[in-house]
Amino acid sequence: GVLGSGDFARSLAVRLVCSGFRVVVGSRNPKRKASLFPAAAEVTFQAEAVKKADVIFVAIFREHYSTLCDLADVLVGKILVDVSNNTEINHHKESNAEYLASLFPACTVVKGFNVVSAWTLQSGARDGNKQVLICSNNQEAKRIVAEIAQVMGFTPVDMGCMSSACEIENIPLRLLPAWKIPIFLALGLFLCFFTYNLIRQVIHPYIREQKNKLYKIPIEVVNTTLPCVSYVMLSLVYLPGVLAACSQLYYGTKYRRFPDWLDQWLQHRKQIGLLSFFCAALHAVYSLCLPMRRSHRYLLIETAVKQAVEKKMTIWVEEEVWRMEIYISVGIIALGLLSLLAITSLPSIANSLNWREFSFIQ
């Protein structure tokens, strides 16, 4: 059964019907809401829906849990699956699932399906996250909900007892938790290298020769900064592995725990590597845009005028030509290799490789 008639409740009902379950939807206005649900789902009043189902998905907001108190008698012995989320991290002292369990002590409450979006429910487990995090104090109830998740095409993950509900409810509210440190690291490196290049390419010529080079800031200075950040970030991907190996050799065992700073560093290597690839890709795009600038055209015309005034037939310098050709060729190859590393670090690709293949590419 499903209590609620919002977007998530509708998507959940669709997924359950497509998975072969008999679905009863409880609504306060069944006649008006019936057209929103699939024809195979029975839409009726909440009291009637509760009587016809043993497992009930509570798809309503926490503030409306108290409206279900009138159904306390018919809810006795039922399994309530709380799918709600909060609007803020740790917004309440107790989780929504624990609050629901306190309101209906005669029921068995299971926290689950809150990390799955309505879109994923509608399109199936082939799109989006396939994991369904489940927790409850009742093992049998967890087993039943896990079986339902498996039939729906998802992968149930047992998160333990009900005390884990608060952590599960906070997961959808976190913004890229694994990327916070790598992003700040990349921004810090970018600011350092940008400041150095700004002084070297813009401020220094102005002080020494009174030349206005401010036009270089948007493209040239940024383009000179990006590869520096990319190189350093890439080195930071492999450096912790070397430090970890040295630590194991020093202590003569691989079972000794690494220091916390090294452990955190090792865990963020993939994110650091992808940011390195991002900076390298931006550098390639910026480099392609260099000839498109108006300043480049003016300098090209100025060079041509000087050549005509000085009556020079050619300014071809073989060494500089070869140097630039080799530089661009090596840069393209390096970007290609870095792209290969970035692609193989994606979970969908990495999971299809065995350890020897992955190590060979690295």
From TrEMBL:
Residues 1-86 form the Pyrroline-5-carboxylate reductase catalytic N-terminal domain. Pfam families: F420_oxidored (PF03807), Ferric_reduct (PF01794). It is a multi-pass membrane protein. One of its GO terms (cellular component) is endosome membrane. The keyword Metal-binding applies. Residues 229-361 form the Ferric oxidoreductase domain. One of its GO terms (molecular function) is cupric reductase (NADH) activity. It catalyses: 2 Fe(2+) + NADP(+) + H(+) = 2 Fe(3+) + NADPH; 2 Cu(+) + NADP(+) + H(+) = 2 Cu(2+) + NADPH. Its cofactor is heme b; FAD. Keywords: Copper, Endosome, FAD, Flavoprotein, Ion transport, Iron, Iron transport, Membrane, Metal-binding, Oxidoreductase, Transmembrane, Transmembrane helix, Transport. Belongs to the STEAP family. This is STEA3 Metalloreductase. It comes from Pomatorhinus ruficollis (streak-breasted scimitar babbler).
